[in-house]
Amino acid sequence: MQYRKFGATDLLVSEVGFGTWAIGGGAMIGNTAIGWGNVDDTVSEEAIYTSLEAGINFFDTADIYGLGHSEELVGKTIGGRKDVMIASKAGNVSRKNEFTVDYSEASLKRLKRDVIDYYQLHTARLNHLKEGDCIEAMQQLQKVGKIRYWGLSLNTFYPLPEAEYLLQHELGNGFQMVLNLLNQHSLPLLKKAGEKGYGIIARMPLQFGLLTGKFDRGAAFPENDHRKNRLTAEVVNASNTALAPVWELCEKYNCTKTQLALSFILSYNEVSVIIPGIRTKEQVAGNTTGLFKLDIADREMIEALGSSDFLSVMEIIRLQG
Questions:
Q1: Which 3 state secondary structure label does DSSP give 265?
Q2: How far is CA 5 from CA 10, 174, 256, 282, in A?
Q3: Predicted structure pTM score
Q4: CB distance 107 to 88 below 8 Å
Q5: pLDDT for 261-279, tens place per residue?
Q6: How far, in Å, CA of 268 to CA of 263, rounded?
Q7: Comparing C-alpha atoms, which of 245, 208, 287 is closest to residue 219?
Q8: How confident is the model over 221-235, as a mean pLDDT?
Q9: Which of 69, 130, 134, 271 has the fewest CB atoms within 10 Å of its CB?
């Protein structure tokens, strides 16, 4: 495992982290799935312990993952360990001052921690930031020692406005952004954020498993798995067609599609950590081994597709929600 500095902070994080959304289980809000289907907590705990052996020291969670269950699992397994860093998020939207504080206390209790290493506003939008209450809450939590650092988890499809606001006003310590082979909307932020000392968490590096190559047109998911309405036959077919020239690189590098997808993101020095969703010990191995240095020419080819052929695929994905 290789380690990188998290921006200008004193955090030294494993370049591959543990995304814990999936281990939260098949949570629902009304009729809307916000989870990844049913999970076995024993399997999830085994995955967490295996990830520690692989050198992972960064775990990303949120209060909405499994409606708190993800945080509970993290707290049960590693809450008392001082050699790992835990990042969480405040709700699924920007919070008012008292709301953020209340939710941070609940998260701390579930995580069995006195301090959250890195706390994030969960996809707060520009109007929330301009109102200022959520920012004041984060600054207050940092001041009283409930959190070490804070930042913003950016919108999946339109990440720039909120990031530029924080950069312009020099607020926060980092960003969590979607960045993968298909979704390259955040690329313009990398250099600017890196130069200003912001840590970068790259989420959805495998686009809900789509970039592992394991799904075909017949992929099916249960009602309590959010991918049922996102990884449709149209999305899978369009992605597989558009990605064909990228997957040819697997032969050149003698790698899996997963390894290629992750290595592409790690080729950007500004990225501090990628957080693939991990559910099993086997996925720990698949996401942490065989990573390699991507040739500049190959990265530029993928970037060119990101600004051309992949845009139509991303529009299909956006319309799915």
A1: helix
A2: 7, 12, 27, 27
A3: 0.95
A4: yes
A5: 999 999 999 999 999 999 9
A6: 9
A7: 208
A8: 89
A9: 130
